[in-house]
Amino acid sequence: MxxxxxxxxxxxxxxxxxxxxxxxxRGLLEHGVSEPDARVLDLGYGGGEWLLRxxxxxxxxxxxxxxxxxxxxxxxxxxxxxxxxxxxxxxxHQAAADFVSPHPxxxxxxxxxxxxxxxxxxxxxxxxxxxAPGGRVLxxxxxxxxxxxxxxxxxxxxxxxxxxxxxxxxxxxxxxVHGHVSTRRELDDYEWACWGSVAAWALDHPDDPDSSQALxxxxxxxxxxLRSYRDSFGFLCLVLRxxxxxxx
Length: 248
Ligand SMILES: C[S@@+](CC[C@H](N)C(=O)[O-])C[C@H]1O[C@@H](n2cnc3c(N)ncnc32)[C@H](O)[C@@H]1O
Fold this sequence. Notes:
Elements: H1 3-10, H2 22-32, E1 39-43, H3 49-57, E2 62-67, H4 70-82, E3 89-93, E4 105-111, H5 120-129, E5 131-144, H6 150-156, H7 162-171, E6 174-181, H8 184-204, H9 211-229, E7 233-242
Parallel strand pairs: 1-2, 1-4, 2-3, 4-5
Antiparallel strand pairs: 5-7, 6-7
Helix pairs in contact: 1-8, 8-9
The protein binds S-adenosylmethionine (SAM).
């Protein structure tokens, strides 16, 4: 069983691949989609859930997504057809950093995919290139809620605390107009949804050749979460507008 297969099972009951509940996603999209006919781009769209929700709530909007995963492409295509929004959705199968578009976007999203660009600020630099005048960026990334253990840094990467993260973003020329810090409940619900789904799949498919691998992956990942990063990991989403440059 490869990573993508595990990921598909892990997210079966949590289609947003980040620690956010439905109300938080709705609130973030309401602040991000500023016009009824907005053009929306998602860099690293996963199952396409952010785009599908934006298209469903704004019936005149159009959306595009970029992801390197074939599994993501197939899943998002299928979900778009079943929700009847496929005519307004274009999916690109490629590295997000290489994506070029003939037109700009009113909202550029990238949640849980900053590793595709090498971090938060490079993600914002990429988003800026795709942004229409007056457009918004909705970005989601980790921060350290508490001092991380060396294992947590090794496993998840190097982040800063919340205030420092905001300082870096604002110094880069962005003004936050909305934000959401994932709650303890959202963080825990996400991990339980992922590793509980994988464990349940293994128990429901005892004769599948991948069953024992899935069960041990679920146990390992649950233990890594509880022992290595549950106390230090935080997740932040920001809706950003570009800060006007001061006139001389
Ligand atoms: C944690 S998932 C987040 C998906 C989605 N944004 C969400 O919140 O549901 C990260 C996604 O980034 C994609 N990804 C990773 N590296 C990428 C790259 N270089 N270019 C495009 N997509 C990439 C992965 O395939 C995966 O679908």
